[in-house]
Structures are given as C-alpha cells and as structure tokens.
Amino acid sequence: MSSFIVLGAQWGDEGKGKMTDYLAEDANVVVRFQGGNNAGHTVEVGDKQYKLHLIPSGILYDDKVNIIGNGVVLNPEALFEEIEYLEGLGVKITPEKLLISDRAQVIMPYHRALDGMKEKVRGKNDIGTTGKGIGPCYTDKMERSGIRVCDILEKDTFKEKLEAALSVKNEIITKVFGGEALDFDKIYKQYLDFAERIRPFVTDISVKVYDEIKDGKNVLFEGAQGTLLDIDYGTYPYVTSSNTIAGGVCTGAGIGPTMVNSAVGIAKAYTTRVGKGPFPTELFDEMGQWLRDKGHEYGVTTGRARRCGWLDLVILKSSARVSGLTSFAVTKIDTLAGLDKIKVCVGYKFNGKVIDYFPASLKSLAQCKPVYEEFDGWDESIADARSYEELPENAKKYLKKIEEFTGTKVSIVSVGPRRDQTIKVSEL
Ligand code: GDP
Ligand code: IMO
Ligand code: MG
C-alpha cells in the first residue's frame, strides 16, 4: 500500500503541476481532492507545454487513472473546454483514464455571477478571487443547497434543486446586487446536456481510491492552491474556500488518514502570491521585478502579475507542521542564479520578540517584520544539473538552511519547468 500527497507549501503556483507530472511516472492513480478551475497547473514535457485547471496532472500519461474527487467544485463547461484543449494537443481522454466523483459539487452560472458581484461590493477590501465561482459554490455546499454531480444526472432531482436554488439566487442577484435574473430553462437545458456528457466518467471515487490502495497501487493526491490559501490555516479571509492542506485529502477523496504514507510540500525557492492579502517578505523594489521577470511570474488562470518576495521559512515551517510534511520539493531554484546575495526570512519580529510561527490575526501579521539571513548567491546556470552533486555549493547551503529550519528534508530539487529538469535527492 502506498499513497502520497503533493501540495503547495506557500500561496499556490509553486510548481505542483510539474511535480505531479514528474512523480506520476511512479503512480497508478492521480487524484485532485479540492479546489476547481481556479487552479492553473503547468506541465512541460519536451518542447510541449500543457496548462491544466481541473483535470489532474497525471493525464499526460496514457496508463494512469485520473480522478476528480468529491472535494472538488466542478464547472462542467470548463471541464469540456479543457478536454477539448487537451485532445487538441494529442492527449487521449477516456472514461477509463478520467473518473469524476458523483459527490463533487457543481459550479452553476449563479456562482460565477455572485463571485463577481460580491467582489465588487467588497470594493477596496476585495479578495482578488479568480472569478470562477469557487467561493459561492463551496458556500452552497456548506449551506446544504449545493447541486452535486449525481443530482444533475437525475432529471427530476436536478429540476427540483435548480428551481429551489434559482428562486433564492435570483432574489439576491436582482434585489441585493441589482443584477439580471438568470433564466431557469436555459440553465436546465444546458446542464442536462453537460450531464449526459459527464455520465460515462462518473463513479463513487472513494470506493475506487480505497480499492486501488488496498490493491497495492501507487496513489498520488494532487493539491491545488497552497497552505496559506487554506480556508483554516491561510491568511483568512484572503484565501480560497477549501482545505488545501493534507487534511483535505481525507474529506476530499473519501479515504482515512491511515491510508496515506507521505506528503511532499512543493516550495518555490522564493515566494509569490496572486490576489490580495498579507505577504511579509514581499518586495516592492526592482528586486521584486527581477524575480517576476526571471521567473515569468504571471498567473496561468488569470494572467495577473504575481507579487514576488524572498523565501519565507516561517511559512514553510508552518506548512510542514499543519500537513505533517515528510519532505519538500524545492522548485525554481534555477531562477535565483545570478544574484550576488539572497535573503531568507528566518523569523518575524513581533512585539519585541522574534517568533517562528504564522499569526492568525492579520493585524498582528501586519506588525510582523521579517528577520533575514543573507546567503551568498551563485552565477552558474543550474538548469542542466541532474544530480545534487552538480549544484553549486551556495545552492546546497541554501537547501540545507530550508532543511535545518523546518526540520524537514528536501527530497527533490527542480531546476527548470521540464519533466527532465528534476533532481531526486531522497525518498519522499
Ligand atoms: P502550480 O499551480 O503549482 O502547478 O504552478 P504554476 O504552473 O501555476 O506555476 C509554476 C510555473 O513555474 C510554471 O510556469 C512552471 O512551468 C514553472 N516551473 C515549475 N518548476 C520550475 C522550475 O524548477 N524552474 C523553472 N524555471 N520553472 C519552473
Ligand atoms: P494553483 O493551484 C495561486 C487565489 C486567488 C485569490 C484567492 C481566492 O495554480 O496554485 P478563489 O478564486 O479561489 O476564490 O480566489 O486564492 N488563488 C490562487 N493563487 N494559485 C492558485 O492555484 C490559486 N487559486 C486561487 O488569486 O487570491
Ligand atoms: Mg498555478
């Protein structure tokens, strides 16, 4: 029995897609357990680049089973667009290769509409969401008025649920936000059509994942977003609406914690964030712009410029704790080549003391001043390094610092976007 988790240790975009694709080589099954098409995962194989949002990053292999778990919020229109996009790039998508949970919540047009309207009303306090309807869909799930995949497969059930939902949503859209009411017939017809196209892919994925693990297969759980976007342990309310940490695997894929063997946190060698919210090591000067340019830090889903800053070890230590990480995979260390000095945050100065944990209160966080340790950089390009020994001594010192501070080993070093630009240092 073997199963492991790949999750983001920062604010998303750490390179989860690349690492999932790399690690999927040894897996039989890849499972997405939370989030939706707010995610943007890039995978590069040879000279081809693939951008995935909803479909697990194991899809590029023909012999892997890819699962969209019950914890995911699924926009059927986005799903079919992604299938078409992948098929256009020569990737086969069949019901043997892609399974969808009957319990996944469905993103409806009113979720997307409300996402935008709520952001507008928040004004300068907006979250900077991706506008995909993620928050409103998870809200309905918790409020118990959501529509699940199994519901749209039953004409009568769907009719009843959509009528009930729309009667409330249209009141809110028109009376609270002054928007235009959505048309029942149009949505009903459109989603019944989606339902028929989805039907062949739908199954009870908890049973499937359990059986695969019991059968001795290798199962990889692919996280979306990152630890600091977690609804409980992130920079609330500047977070996404799901549990992005390891705990989300159990509820989002329907398996128990005793069935997971390891969890690898994907950590970028510096820090980025998209959207609003606190970011203690953010750089507003030319150094921030240098990282953005050199690391091509622009969002896959929204195209927005990512905010950039130094590596924050307080964040990585918190991430290791809340997810019980067994190791880190450090990505984009190649981006740092050419810097004379590299700073790393090793604590926050707060109320006259230095702390090494991430405070819950945003007011406290705003008072935290990063304490930096400075490292010597390296000039050599490391994009072609294929073993740990080939890395410059100063890059090794940088990686050692991550291990020492977080008490968690670095099992993989990624030196470029392609699958082959990866150095495996130890077991996960
Ligand atoms: P994800 O959301 O965590 O999957 O990450 P994204 O795909 O949004 O952003 C990561 C970006 O960095 C993508 O463009 C990847 O192709 C790229 N990338 C991943 N790992 C590396 C690496 O080690 N070096 C470099 N230079 N780029 C990388
Ligand atoms: P991947 O999987 C980076 C951010 C948004 C916003 C907040 C809430 O590619 O790492 P939402 O639409 O989820 O309600 O937006 O979360 N966000 C991400 N940031 N990477 C992502 O996904 C993200 N998914 C959501 O920018 O700040
Ligand atoms: Mg991304």
Please provide a written account of the structure.
The protein is α/β, with parallel strands linked by helices. It has three domains: 2-101 and 203-262, Adenylosuccinate Synthetase, Chain A, domain 1 (3-Layer(aba) Sandwich); 105-198, Orthogonal Bundle (Adenylosuccinate Synthetase, subunit A, domain 2), CATH 1.10.300.10; 267-424, Adenylosuccinate Synthetase, Chain A, domain 3. Helix content is 34%, strand content 21%. The chain has helices spanning 16-24, 76-88, 109-122, 134-143, 149-152, 155-176, 184-198, 205-214, 247-253, 286-294, 313-323, 362-367, 393-406; strands spanning 2-8, 29-32, 41-45, 48-52, 65-68, 73-74, 98-101, 105-106, 202-203, 218-222, 262-268, 271-273, 307-309, 311-312, 327-331, 341-350, 353-355, 369-376, 409-414, 422-424. The strands form five sheets. Strands 9-7-5-2-10-1-11-15-19-20 form a ten-stranded mixed β-sheet, sandwiched between helices. A hairpin with a 2-residue loop joins strand 3 and strand 4 (48-52). Helix 3 (109-122) packs across helix 4 and helix 3 packs parallel to helix 6. The radius of gyration is 22 Å and the shape is globular. The protein starts with a strand and ends with a strand. The relative contact order is 0.16. The mean pLDDT is 97.
List the helices and strands and how they pair.
Blueprint: E1 2-8, H1 16-24, E2 29-32, E3 41-45, E4 48-52, E5 65-68, E6 73-74, H2 76-88, E7 98-101, E8 105-106, H3 109-122, H4 134-143, H5 149-152, H6 155-176, H7 184-198, E9 202-203, H8 205-214, E10 218-222, H9 247-253, E11 262-268, E12 271-273, H10 286-294, E13 307-309, E14 311-312, H11 313-323, E15 327-331, E16 341-350, E17 353-355, H12 362-367, E18 369-376, H13 393-406, E19 409-414, E20 422-424
Parallel strand pairs: 1-10, 1-11, 2-5, 2-10, 5-7, 6-8, 7-9, 11-15, 14-16, 15-19
Antiparallel strand pairs: 3-4, 12-13, 16-17, 16-18, 19-20
Helix pairs in contact: 3-4, 3-6
The structure holds guanosine-5'-diphosphate, 6-O-phosphoryl inosine monophosphate and magnesium ion.
